[in-house]
Amino acid sequence: MHYKGYEATVEFDEDAELFHGEVINLRDVITFQGSSAAELKQALAESVEDYIEFCRSRGEEPEKPFSGQFVVRTEPALHKAVSTAASREGISLNKWVISTLERAVK
């Protein structure tokens, strides 16, 4: 499930006959629950909005979903090796890293 760029996973609790969801990939915890898809969607939206408002009331920036950018620090020798590998393939270092990461997570 998605709302305003936040992504959540959902599980079903057979005993309670409820769906429980949690926004993933954040340090902060945002949870919600419902007994139907419509209730889940509404609960996710309300929980994210509550989280954003809570952060505002404390003068803090809400944690954002991933931007698609990250910095990698490595030893100079590895930096040279991956740059050389990208050059051999005729692509940019950025494209080489993306391709390599995509293969790694499949």
Automatic annotation (TrEMBL):
The lineage of its organism: Bacteria, Pseudomonadati, Pseudomonadota, Alphaproteobacteria, Hyphomicrobiales. GO terms for biological process: regulation of DNA-templated transcription. InterPro entries: Arc_rbn_hlx_hlx (IPR013321), Ribbon_hlx_hlx (IPR010985), TTHA1013/TTHA0281-like (IPR035069), Uncharacterised_HicB (IPR008651). This is Antitoxin HicB. It holds the Pfam family HicB. It comes from Devosia insulae DS-56. Gene3D superfamilies: 3.30.160.250, Met repressor-like.
